[in-house]
Amino acid sequence: MSSRVFCQHCGTPVPSHREDGFCCAGCVYVHDLLHQQGLDHFYDLKGGVSLPPVSPQSLRERDYEWLQELARVEAATQVTSVPEERRSSAPVELHLALQGISCVGCVWLIERVFSRHAGGLRVNVDVVQGELRVTYAPALFDVVAFARDLQSFGYLVGPPHDGQAKKQSSGLERRVGVCGAFAMNAMAFSLPAYFGMPAEFAFASWFDMIAAVSATLAMLVGGSYFIEKAWRSLQLGALHIDTPIALGIIAAYLGSLGGWIAGVPGLKYFDFVAIFIFLMLTGRWAQQAAVERNRRKLMRDTSIPESVTLLGEERSRPLSALQPGVRFSIKPGQSIPVACRLLSPQAAVSLEWINGESESQHRLLGQLLPSGALHIGTRGLEVEALESWQESTLRKLLEARRPGEFRDRGLERLLRVYLGVVVAVGWASAVVWWWQGAGMALALQVMISIFVVSCPCALGVAVPLAEDLAASRAERLGVFVRSLGLWKRLTRVRRVVFDKTGTLTLENPVLENAEVLKDLDEAAWTALRTLVTGNLHPVSRSLFDAIGPGALLQNEVQEVVGQGLSLTDAGGHEWYLGRGQEGDACFRRDGVILAAFRFRDELRSESVEEVRRLQQRGLVVQILSGDREAKVAHIAARLGLRRDQWQAEMTPEEKAAWVAANAQDDTLYVGDGANDSLAFDVALCAGSPVAGRSFLEQKADFFFLGHSLRFVSGLLDTARLHRRATRCVFAFSVSYNVVTVVAGMMGHLSPLAAAILMPLSSVVTLSLVAWTFKGVQRKVREETAVSFTKRVAAGGYS
């Protein structure tokens, strides 16, 4: 077992090619900045929490025009209700999405940064929602300067999150709170009867009425959630896990209502109805809250334009305005939304999202720019649309969505048998008791008691806990789950398919001879950083990764498309970065070569070991790439893959067709570009790395941070652990249901017994889940301690 080094800033594994104790130049920069500005208390507050790595690309210059416009609109909107004489001093409140927060240390740091800006009044950071709310005096506070200050520490602000998902989450949260109040009310007014309150007591009827009203309101507010889902699934010809829950709720409520009206105490389950609904809603809310929290950790990629500026117009127009013949402009760093004809003299674009090739492509006046190409030059482009936005490839890839839920045929069959048995046993027991002369009331009590105690209430509470514990374990691997049901699908994986560029390899080529940077003086470092900071060419991105952010010259950078970048400083020296015979790129001052750079595609840390581990588990590993055959063959050879285990020069449609034809029902697909989007939609499950330009992580089942691929086997191990925990819960639930159903058939299950057994069974199942995960964590800690002791004894640590 090899020794692993973890980043001093974020805590993720350090790639093998770095020797400074950090995973990337971004973490180096933020680590040094925190110490230089006296904010290193951040690390004390952070503790052992892992942070998202600070990608150097996220520290590049960003376009904040949208923020200026948002601040202007909000200021104009909010001051309309303020008297005119006070409008100049009226505070403005701004809501923003926030990326990069993970712990209380982040909150503390953001508050300290905010306090340094004049005019700032209040700041509120919501870690769970991934949001930032600032209140400020518009005459004094510079919103863009604050955003840039946050960016220097690795935090990115963006437009507010889409309100629809938040509305659904908050709606379920409100249901939980309201049903909790109803459950407490129903229990409080049911307890006196359990403790022997006589029926002739003056307020006994009032107590029953309050319990009945509380249960009715709980049914309307919370029970309807499960009943609607069960009904919709039945309309589609399927059975949902909510179907037996809905059956139990309806049976208990109708029985209680009938017992209350008929004066039969043995049929009153009002407290059970309210408490059961509350517990089931709590479990469902916990599941969805964890998933929504991970979905909000990342913002949509800013390189994908929300609007464009038409030539001859000053205001922006939505992408839907693009039609053949419409002329518009594209800013540096933005994606080409539709297929276009170039009107500018020349352009530099990257097609890595389309075919996986990272090399810069040069286009001249009149040539075609495909939809989805990334403008990597330093100046804006003028183009003419050749198609509408509705017909564009980028729109189709952006709007494609993976199915929200996968139908589990095995679960449907199990539920069908389960429900059939429960209903048959309930009705048969009622008929037997009535046939034996026990009376209709007692026969109904037996039937309803069986329906009530056989509800999968334990599963409804324990399974969400297992989901949460599994998600927490995945987060320690740098993986964030975005979809419910992922763990079950992962247990069916028999094949792992990787994209190459940006997935198996790092997003940018690695500077092979980084030692040449050490020979540059401070002036050369500053000039080189200025040249590469505003350029998205692969060479520029790689050099920016190597040298990191810092001081810049104020001189304008000139670009000769296809040749290189140049600038002239205040002292009259000409600095140039471009092609050269001595390396992949040469850096010159006044024509004299200062450094010749060589680059190579670098595999992610532990890729070779991870592929070997996956193959040892009996999984098939495959590469599907749009890159050239020679480059894919080289990477495949390093991973030890045979010729039949990789494909090259594939289009997005060919990737999707291959997955659909060969491995749709058992494939984990890991990719990062637009050319993987269609394959994502047909694979069993899919994941994506978080790169400098987000795309697929917004539609993946999970996304991962850091530079290592080791998480894949760890994620599959977590899925197996999740399955073990749920099987333990299922085994207990079966045993519990057998015992309680038999007791109900014999007439020994009263409402009091049901009210006691229901929460008790939930406690037992929660304990089973916690014990399963805790046992594995203890084993991992013991193995780590043994490994550490052996290395200390062998002199492996100093």
What does this structure look like?
By secondary structure, this protein is of the alpha+beta class. 48% of the residues lie in helices and 14% in strands. The strands form six sheets. Strands 14-27-26-25-15-23-24 form a seven-stranded mixed β-sheet, with helices on both faces. A six-stranded antiparallel β-sheet has the order 6-5-7-13-8-11, with no helix packed on it. Helix 6 (163-194) packs antiparallel against helix 7 (204-235), helix 6 (163-194) runs antiparallel to helix 9 (270-295) and helix 7 (204-235) packs across helix 9. The model is unreliable at 780-798 (pLDDT under 50).
Q: What share of the residues lie within helices?
A: 40-55%
Strand order of the largest sheet: 14-27-26-25-15-23-24
How many structural domains does the protein architecture include? Answer: 5
The major β-sheet equals: 7 strands, mixed
Strand content: 5-15%
Backbone structural class: alpha+beta
Mean pLDDT across every amino acid position = 81
Based on DSSP secondary structure assignment, what is the total number of beta strands? 27
User: What are the low-pLDDT stretches, counting only 5+ consecutive residues below 50?
Assistant: 780-798
SS element count, helices: 24
Amino- and carboxy-terminal Cα gap: 18 Å
User: What sort of overall outline do the alpha carbons produce when their principal axes are compared?
Assistant: elongated
Q: Cα-atom Rg, whole angstroms?
A: 31 Å
